[in-house]
Amino acid sequence: MSTLRFLSFLLFGAVAVALATQPVSVQAQLVTSLAVIFLLAALWKFARGAESRQLFIALALFVVLRYVYWRITATLPPFSDPVGLTCGSILLAAELYCVAMLFLTLIVNAEPLTREPAPQIEDEALPVVDVLVPSYDEDGSILAMTLAAAKSMDYPADRLNVFLLDDGGTDQKCADPDPQTAERARARRAALQELCNALGCYYLTRERNEHAKAGNLNAALSQISGDIVVVLDADHAPFRSFLRETIGYFFEDDRLFLVQTPHVFLNPDPIEQNLRTFRRMPSENEMFYGVTQRGLDKWNAAFFCGSAALLRRAALDETDGFSGVSVTEDCETALELHARGWTSVYVDKPLVAGLQPESFVSFIGQRVRWCQGMLQIFLLRNPLLKRGLEPLQRLGYLSSMSFWFFPFPRLVFMLAPLAFILFDVKIFVSNIEEAIAYTATYVVVNAMLQNYLFGSVRWPWVSELYEYCQGVFLSKAILSVFLRPRSPSFEVTAKGSAQRQDGLSEFAWPFFAIYGLLALGAAVAVYRCVAEPGVRQLMFFVGLWNVFNLVTAGVALGAVAERRRREAHPHLPIERRGALTLGEAHIRVAIEEVSAGGCRLRAATDADAKALTAAKASEGRLFIDSCADAASCPSLSARIVSVAPDGRRTAAFALSQPQDYLALADLMYGDATALERFQAARRKHKGIVAGTVQFLWWGAIEPLRAFAYLRPRAGDPALREPPPFADLSTIFGRRQPRLRSPAQERIPAQETNPAQETNSTEERTPPATERKRSSTDEKI
Amino acid sequence: MQFRVLAALLATTTALTPIAVGAQAIFTTAPQEQLFRLKFDRPRPAVAGLQPIIPARFAAREASRVAAVEIPAKAAAAPPPAPVVPQPQAPRPAIAGAMLRHLTNNIQGYRLAGEIGASEWPIYVTKAQASRRLQFRVGYLAAVSVMPEASALTLTINDQTIGDTPIRAVQEVETIVFDIPPGVMRPGFNSVRISTSQRHRVDCSLEATYELWTQIDPTETGLVLPEDDAGVASLADLGALPPDEQGALPIRAVLGANARAFEIERMLRAAQAISLAGRFEQPVVDAGPAAAGRYGVNLFVGAAAELAGRVDLSRVGLIDEPRAFVLPATSGRRASIIVTGATSAQVDEAIRRLLVSPAPKGSPQGLRAAAAFPGYRLDGGRRVKLRDLGVASEEFTGHLYRAAFNIVMPPDFYPADYGNAQLRLAGGYAAGLDSNAQIVVKVDERTAVSLNLLKASGEVFRDNPLPLPLGFLKPGLNRIEIEAHVPTSQDADCDPLAALRAAKRFLFLDETEIELPPIARIARMPDLAVTASGGFPYAGSKVRPKLYMPSLDSDAVGAAATIVAHFAIAAGRPIDFEIVDTPPGEGQGPTLAVAPLDSFDAALLQRLDMPADMLREAWGLHLTADRRKASEKRLSQLEIAARNRFVLQRNFPMACYAPRMMLDKTITAQAMPATTIAAPAGEPERVDFAPVGSVRGRAERGEGEQDLLEAWRDDLRREGRWGYGVVERLRVAGAWSAARVADAAQWLRAGFEAEAADRAATQHASLAMSQSITGDTAKDVWTIVTAPNAATLAEAAACLVDPRVSRRVQGSLAMLDMKDAKVLATPADSSRFIVTRPLSFGNLRLIAAGWMSLHPGVYVGLAILVAALFAASTRWLTRNVGRRTR
């Protein structure tokens, strides 16, 4: 039966390919494409469900196939035009890459899995869980929060051990030749040991900083003996229900080595911050965690993303711990274990809240590491050649890795129109009828397909924006991996280094350069459109494409024009109750929003509201209705710092001792549904039109803001400095990119050993997916 | 050239955007010109127009004829240089009494229309003739609009210019005789090319160029052979049989009384062999006693004993083996071909030998012309350079350039838009053309593709692909015309005299090539076009095709033989028909039926879907009238003159001329031009045509062409320096965009419109041709050719096989109206596919693509269906593999 199913799939696939590669007339092509577009719209509007989803994909694929067939067979420049042929082939290769990625995406996401909740296990049966929190140089308060949250997880206390794996206080560091560095390391070690003692955690460190994060974890593995290992990045605080929601899967499947949960961030990444989309738009990683990991899960190919995951110790022992050939030990480990027949589970439920890098520079640094790591695996542990993997696991890993080649096609699409506009190189042979019947309809169908599949987790054109922002820097990183696959080393992503001033990122200048080039291209296009009637029609389309690129580059300018971060601590909206004592007054309050620094609350009842208004004192204690234990009554020292007109108060916490973090963890990480609500609020489907309008708007206004940042403002000390053009070597250094956040640079001690390890935020990547094509991508 | 405004801004832009090539719409493949490498040191001729050109000549290969090259700098201010090279042959009076070998008829007739025209004929000379001192006589008549001072007719033989003459015969036919230098003509086929370059007297618009024509008078044109020429003496020289003055080869089938079917079959085969060997496109067979006259041939086929009463064979000795030989013409008799033997079997053997023709011989150019005549046989996946189709390179100074060639597609070619034939254009255009300058490619007078020439700086290209959708081609003969509309703004205030020293505007190189993609091969029947222009399905039929003749009346036999010979010519190979006197049953073979309408059984006609009643009603009285054949009627001198004039002015197929009907019209037609002719006053200024001075003369063709391209590039570079006229470009913009929108609208309409026409018969119709298919194979194809009566049948058949007429035959029913030499065709209601070759996967795919291109709705439906099935199977698969959502 299964053979029959497979054969029928192959048969109809072959028939579809045969039909799609029929060289029918342009009229027939146009009619077909329009009919398909019409049908897609109808399906979208009237039909939901797995069957109609497959039909939608199949219809769209038909048009895509026709386009690809036509593109390959009919549009390359002739041999008599070698320049055009070369450029045309590059563009074609870029397009084919995108189509290949589309196919991989569709295979991976054939039917994203929706899981039942994990079975609930009686306490007596629960295994011992060791929570590992690797750290390199994170701030103590961040670690305290994470450790407290980990310690507060709903799990029998005697079976839950929390370990802080400190790589900032190793013997090697404490004995650093530089006395300042050594002193700082020793102080760090002492402070963290004290913190761990206070919280009931264990402090672990090691002799030497070897093999970065994987080495750190492996060193810890030798000292612990639990059955299940939980890895949490230093800035990833688990919610209380984390283990209850996940541990049950290990009882269903003896070969299960991994339960991965999504990474959710409480603060915006630099692009979200600078475009102010954090509260409105799904984060970049949501396409990966919201759809792709579920898709992978269907094929038993969901992989380890470095944090927020449970691993079976027995599986890790088989491979002698975490693999460390690449700088992304997580995916590498999962690949190794999948190849050995272990299975993985992905739980699509936000249970861990983390932090994003805050500056564009550190954001790029993080992406460079992921990109280099994934390509290292691609080169050194190629999933296609790896023995033991199932075919679909191979494709899943392949899609996650080859996704990282995106910088090249993206840059090709950005610059291709200039070849014609500025240099008259013709790279796409077509007449206007064919261009409409094939290219235009393909662009529309592709946009519809992307939006249909990912519209709720990714706004239109945002993929292009992220790809472009990263691509400018990643292309160099990719080349260096290919030249020296083993050379990239683990770079710690800086977190919590808040941007205090509006200003351009150090990495901004290439974006200005490209923007200028595209603007020149647009000007020349307009001129030639007017002055050269012969090329008007062609120039119109190519110019349109260039304008789209210009818009993208403009939005990117906004993305690198960094806005001041007003909030010291990221907020999370919650729905909790508590009591506030201000002097003599006991007031029941509803707590609506919380951060590490404070919370926003309102009086629970009218009577309480009066009491609150009447209260004279502004300092007091906030008693929380605990999730864990109604009897215990954790409390925090709180001071009312502002009163909103609607009566809501903002309170600041004074976290004076480690136990305060346990109370804060209860308040902030007690109820995981808060995180779900937070995420769901952003996941509204963004249609193509609305998304395009939004994008155009950014494209219009963001460059203005970026250019305004160029001009130093009087009286603003930070901006009296020269325009923040980055040091060239920072970006295109000879060795691996030395990406350092400004914060790091303020601490000279840390520069001594840049190739050090630590943990970092770890969500993997939105891989493999779609590539919405710009509406004019193929016009020349 | 006229845009010399050079703004600083433009200079900057030019530097940044090195080139301005590739202005053509969206066909983006012009070679990349490095125009930014401006050559500032190159001297610029002070007077650009000082290079008189006779375009046709520049292709001449003889080195000595292409001498003069660079114009010396000092000549810049001097008057036009005197002709440097071979003084064209001075026209001589015709030589009385000499024998004139006429040109064979061809598809374009004898008309050279437009500012530039050329026609090439293969002409066969015997060894004896080639060694003689020969002359060529051209008789022509031109339209009144032609300006003699700027118009010339050039005769080229084997690519060697023989001479030229100003075109001034606008009132009456003028004949010029050119001496052919010894050694030019070679035994076998030779290429004779007559080309014209014409300019309008008063009007410089594009439309006006359509008024320009020069009509070659076939009766006055041909190779002048000495009176004592022996003519054809050997079977190897069948190609040297003289066609008559209208270009047809009259073949008199000399049959005995009450000829039997097998005798006629033999005659048919012999007539085909002669036609094929000599590349006669219009053999006209009639049956009767041996004919007199200079032209054509008498054909005797039969056993020696049978022939005894018809021809005197005493001098050839005893015939005891298969024999085929020629009896040279005598004063009282045409050349005669005797195919004979002692027995019937020996006669058949003799015919077979006749059919096995040796490899054709002749000059390379002549063989080329013979191969491209009537059209070059092109198959899927093949390419050919236009120089092999007889198109010559040209530097053109006029307003509308035209070049045309014929290709013959296989009869089972399935036409639809599943691919494009690529016409890879090599050439260029000068700076400063108007906004509506364009290249238009027409297939059988329908515009297939156009390309705007919009670069103000001009452009040269070597490989500029123009896609001709395959749907424009059809099985059989296709005529493809390349037009370049190259007006400039100066044309508005027209100065005809400026035409004398006009600058070059357009360059066409004969390395342009046409390439066919793989084509679908399946025949569709009924389609008379395939039969008329490809002989399908009779030629190459596996089963012996049948010729059904209810009556063996001599007129009907002549008509049948004429048509059969035409089919053989069209197919390029002989067809072995079996004559039957009862309608063959189903599946016995493709059948051709030739007879007057009343000879057919009414039931048969009905079964074959022939609108017999309609025809009977239309033809009425003619059905029984015993008409004398028009050709036998003696014409008065006046009538002959009138006829000739009419024929010439209308480019009318002479074979279709029926005197009684025509005469009235002729008189009016004659009166009309007389009033409009304005004889040029005084002696017109004599224009000396230098040979193409601008051709950097090299004997080697490849190099010469290279140089030409380079020279144009240099010119354009110079133009590029000055040529960025902003204003000009702005002006050009609007018109062009509007045109594109209109094009698009028309294109979409064209995709969905189906032609519809009613089957109609007119009483003017002289002949009806109908085709139907009773089964699914080629064997079930019936073609009926009929006419009101036998005499009309013979007459109309002779008209039908004129290439200009026969190429109009199409559909399932075609009515020939001799009065206008027009064919009224009714398309087939439904056609059936006939498999002609094993259906390979590739062929099936293309056939399917073609069919779905013609039925887009089906493709859409199939696409959706297949997508749905694929979706269902995917869902079925994914639901059951991998993990399941619970």
Largest sheet of chain B: 7 strands, mixed
Count of discrete alpha- or pi-helical segments spanning 4 or more residues of chain B: 19
Q: If you average the pLDDT of chain B, what whole number results? A: 76
- Give the beta-strand count of chain A: 18
Poorly predicted regions of chain B? 1-95, 628-632, 659-702, 721-732, 751-758
Compute the number of helices of chain A: 28
Oligomeric state: heterodimer
Rg for CA atoms of chain B: 30 Å
Beta-strand share of residues of chain B: 15-25%
- Structural class call of chain A reads alpha/beta
What composes the largest sheet of chain A?
Answer: 7 strands, mixed
- Main sheet of chain B: which strands, in order across? 29-28-30-32-31-33-34
Q: What number is the mean pLDDT of chain A?
A: 86
Share of helical residues of chain A: 40-55%
Keywords:
heterodimer, A: 780 residues, alpha/beta, 7-stranded mixed sheet, 28 helices, 18 strands, disordered C terminus, B: 886 residues, 6-stranded antiparallel sheet, 35 strands, disordered N terminus
Structure description:
The complex is a heterodimer of chains A (780) and B (886). Chain A has 780 residues and is an alpha/beta fold. Helices cover 51% and strands 12% of the residues of chain A. Chain A is built from 28 helices and 18 strands. In chain A, strands 3-2-1-4-8-6-9 form a seven-stranded mixed sheet, sandwiched between helices. In chain A, strands 13-14-15-18-17-16 form a six-stranded antiparallel barrel. In chain A, strands 5-10-7 form a three-stranded mixed sheet. In chain A, α3 (50-74) packs antiparallel against α4 (82-108) and α4 (82-108) packs across α16. The longest helix of chain A has 27 residues, at 82-108. In chain A, 57% of the residues are buried. Residues 714-780 of chain A have low confidence and may be disordered. Chain B has 886 residues and is an alpha+beta fold. Chain B is globular and about 90 Å long. Chain B has a seven-stranded mixed sheet. In chain B, strands 1, 2, 4, 7, 9 and 10 form a six-stranded antiparallel sheet that branches. Chain B is 26% helix and 23% strand. The longest helix of chain B is centred in the last third of the chain and has 27 residues, at 726-752. In chain B, α4 (261-278) packs parallel to α6 (344-355), α9 packs parallel to α16 (790-800) and α12 (637-650) crosses α13 (659-676). Classes of the chains: A alpha/beta (780), B alpha+beta (886). Chains A and B meet through α1, α2, α3, α17 and α18 of A and β23, α15, α18 and α19 of B.
